[in-house]
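Hi D.,

Good news: the full-assembly prediction came through. Inputs first.
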Amino acid sequence: MALSTHTTTTDFLLPSIHSAPPFFTQQLHPASLSIATEQWIQLILKYARHRRLFTIKVEDSEAPGNNWDEVLRNERINRKVLPSYLTYILAQMVSKKLAVYEPPKQDRSVLIYWRLPEEWAEVLHDWVSSTGNLNTIMTFYEITDPPIASPLSGLPIPLLRQAIAILSRSNRAQIIAIAEGEGVRFFPSTGKA
Amino acid sequence: MGGNQSVPKITAQDRAILDLKLQRDKVKQYQNNLKAVLDREEAIAKQHLQAGHKDRALVALRRRKYQQGLLLKTDGQLENLQQLVSTIEFSLIEVSVLHGLKQGNEVLKEIHKEMNAESVEKLLEETAEAREYQREIDEMLANNLSLDEEDTVQAELRELQAVVRAETEPSKDVLPSAPTSEPVATEPLAELQEQIEVGSDLARTAIPA
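Then the structure:
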């Protein structure tokens, strides 16, 4: 039985394994479970990168009508990922440092690291330099919601904070806080690490 | 010391700028809300018209018009805020430019103190004297060469000039001109014929023995 890949309406190519019914069942045998879970993790990362989705929640598998339908469900073979399996997959992603529980201390919703915070820090600094905003004070809203789309549009605030923290360790960012809210100022790289 | 020395301190002006920018963000978000409400009101008005409630549609459209007016007003406020922010940021730049100029000016003054006009003049005079002295010495040395040595030196110079000229000008080798008639072999062929005759004579004389 030949499995085929399938391109979704959002122009994402689903791998052929997605057309196999067993893929959607949590395997009992440890070896097949780890292989299948690894495939699911890669699929989730790829899809998140493609659609610029930053979070995935267990409740996305509980009911349709959300951003993850195309991946968590396959109507053509009438299969979907059960919430219990998704909980397990999320736990695996967190343990491999590919995601974090956000908000912390719960296990139903994660922030996906399809790009590591260190990489986000570099992207952030490059964008600030190229738009001529070094040494100026910026608000978080300015960064996540700029009038012109940028690689950082829609970045969740927790991830933005992590990127800023990484930059401030190398003296390239400084957070300014006042009563009404927070802002950040970026500095050029000095060339010294 | 800690690693934070290269990061400048946060001044009160920075906080003021941040405050203005946060206000600007709030106005922008309010505008986005208004735009969403406008679209919804238009959809509601359409629905009412389709259901045949002309008066309700009219009410919805009036509400929409009012909100459009609000949107325009907030545009004006946004512009004010932006202008204020730009003015403050620009004046901060001006201050730093002025500071730079002041520092440059002071450095220039220090340099001028060391380099006053009199000492420069004295230095130039001394250099001119030294150069003159050196020229005299050269002349004396030049006169010390005897007549013979002078001739040898002149000959060497002429040789060197010839070498340099040969190197710089392209070589003018004399090439032979191309032949205009068929080549004629004269002596070598005659010699060869003689040798053949001599050889045959020898052969004849050998047999009778």
